[in-house]
Amino acid sequence: MVNTKVTLCGIEMDNPIIPASGTFGFGYEFAELYDINMLGTFSFKGTTREPRFGNPTPRIAEYAGGLLNAVGLQNPGVNAVIETEMPKLKQVFHKPVMANISGFSVAEYAEVCEKLDAQEQVGWLEVNISCPNVHGGGAAFGAEPKSAAEVTKAVRAVTKKPIILKLSPTAADIAAVAKACEDAGADGVSLINTLPGMRIDLKRRRPLLANTTGGMSGPGMFPLAVRMVYQVYEAVSIPIVGMGGVTTAEDVIELMLAGAAAVGVGAANLVEPYACKTIIEDLPAVMERYGMDDLTKIIGGAHHG
Amino acid sequence: MKQTTLTVVENTRLADGIYRLRLAGNTSAITAPGQFVNLKLSGFFLRRPISVCDWSDEELTLIYKVLGHGTEAMTGMAVGTELDVLTGLGNGYDVSRSGEHPLLVGGGVGIPPLYGLAKRLVAQGKRVTAVLGFNRKSEIFLAEEFRALGAEVIIATADGSAGIHGLVTDGMAAVSDYTYLYTCGPEPMLKAVYADCKTSAQFSFEERMGCGFGACMGCSCETKYGNKRICKDGPVLEKEEIVW
């Protein structure tokens, strides 16, 4: 018997698998397919103060290593999330859930976090300071240690629940941003969000996405995620949720060896609706193949010393 | 939605750039004409959403147009190839709305889902008229199959090489007594049909999709009743809710 249990910011999870925000909605579509209570947890759709439609379509494109999205934080707004989505979620998911928050000002982050903090089912608050698809918000806060720390402090002031800052691969020094979040009171960091990219339609000679650019995700991002998790692990002592192109149980173990305490699965959910279920079912056998009996013991195992 | 493995039993060219793909296997998740399936293709990350033209208990027929690398690769799929498919996606058309004389208006690769619809309407004893629009004669497909069902078929071609010289709206003008309208085609065509439509109607939309089952919000559109996902709440929308 191997042990797949991990602890993330003081909350125990049956396994480290967390469907990433924006690829799992509020869980219902997947709950129709399998019992989503088998997940470690999941991070729900990025929530803002006001309802948002997001960017104009087309907002999906493809590349050899995955997809680009420019959804732009479509969500019904925090009040509707609390009044409509969370009661529905409670019917199908009985574990602490990770609330994902985005904002266009420090005050908005704090306001949305405060409202979600009051929700019993929210275990963790994942604060997205790295959305590449909105202007004047999202990634602007995660680009520099100073602004990342400001958001962290503002959110820290309104909640005692674990806060996990979601970081961007576009930061000049992602380890420095992670350290600034830790120093400002973050309980964890998650990385990487998508990387801005672009495709051009040869027939129309115009950008394929109406938003011109979109965030790249999928297996093509995996080595970047491994490298950044590895670097951030050396810079901070708070837990890391590693993500970026994870597709298999082997990928989960690789990111954990790089330093992840838990692992997000994003794009894979969109093309393989059972991706997380399959990964969770595969984990014990893959652990045994590599002589691992306890996932917690392998976290950061690739680092020297 | 159901994930299943389907086997290619036919993949043949029907007209310029238009292919028929018949797949054998479990079709139990398909419940209405106008639904679609999402095909996993070797070498491509995203699945390819294709509308269901027709289906039986053991088989489904798709008609696709070569539009990009994915559909180009599909033309090379040999009989016997096994495909990973998500089936029964989207809401589909509501046949109960038709009245006695439904008018079906399709343009190009928007025509296939109307065939499965016509078949079910004819089976219910409805008098079906289909206006089918193409760019030119060499691109015409499915017209004979609609006639074989017993539907009245009006062809319109943009270059006048067959049928009415004009657009589907010119074909619609020849039909005065329809009780309901169902349509599918490119968005400019849908807009024109919307402007001329004299009854209540259902419109099927196309959009670039991420997942095809409602998870990613990639294909959302705004309607009079809030945001809807083309893949999950659509692809069929009520005329009354459409915001252009």
Give a verbal description of the structure.
The complex is a heterodimer of chains A (305) and B (244). With 305 residues, chain A is α/β, with parallel strands linked by helices. Chain A has a single domain, classed as TIM Barrel. Chain A contains 11 helices and 15 strands. In chain A, the strands form 4 sheets. A 7-stranded parallel β-sheet of chain A has the order 3-15-14-9-8-7-6. Chain A has a 4-stranded antiparallel β-sheet with strand order 4-5-13-10, with no helix packed on it. In chain A, helix 3 links the parallel strand 6 (97-101) and strand 7. In chain A, helix 5 runs parallel beside helix 6 (174-183), helix 6 (174-183) packs across helix 7 (222-235) and helix 7 (222-235) packs parallel to helix 8. Chain A is globular and about 50 Å long. The mean pLDDT of chain A is 96. Chain B has a 7-stranded mixed β-sheet, sandwiched between helices. Chain B contains 5 helices and 15 strands. Chain B folds into 2 domains: 2-89, Elongation Factor Tu (Ef-tu), domain 3; 95-200, Rossmann fold. Helices cover 16% and strands 36% of the residues of chain B. Chain B is of the alpha/beta class. In chain B, helix 3 (143-149) links the parallel strand 8 (129-134) and strand 9 (152-157). Chain B has helices at residues 69-74, 112-123, 143-149, 168-172, 187-196; strands at 2-15, 18-24, 36-39, 48-55, 59-65, 82-89, 102-107, 129-134, 152-157, 164-165, 180-184, 201-204, 220-223, 226-229, 236-238. The A-B interface holds A 22-25, 29-30, 32-33, 45, 53-54, 57-67, 69, 71, 74, 218-219, 267, 269-271, 273-274 and B 1, 3, 40, 44-47, 86, 207-211, 213-222, 227, 232.
What layout of secondary structure does this protein have?
The complex is a heterodimer of chains A (305) and B (244).
Chain A: E1 6-8, E2 11-13, E3 17-19, H1 28-31, E4 60-63, E5 66-69, H2 78-92, E6 97-101, H3 106-117, E7 122-128, H4 139-142, H5 145-156, E8 163-166, H6 174-183, E9 188-191, E10 195-197, E11 200-201, E12 206-207, E13 214-217, H7 222-235, E14 240-242, H8 249-258, E15 262-265, H9 267-271, H10 275-289, H11 295-298
Parallel strand pairs in A: 3-15, 6-7, 7-8, 8-9, 9-14, 14-15
Antiparallel strand pairs in A: 1-2, 4-5, 5-13, 10-13, 11-12
Helix pairs in contact in A: 3-5, 5-6, 6-7, 7-8, 8-10
Chain B: E1 2-15, E2 18-24, E3 36-39, E4 48-55, E5 59-65, H1 69-74, E6 82-89, E7 102-107, H2 112-123, E8 129-134, H3 143-149, E9 152-157, E10 164-165, H4 168-172, E11 180-184, H5 187-196, E12 201-204, E13 220-223, E14 226-229, E15 236-238
Parallel strand pairs in B: 7-8, 7-11, 8-9, 9-10, 11-12
Antiparallel strand pairs in B: 1-2, 1-6, 2-5, 3-4, 3-6, 4-5, 12-15, 13-14
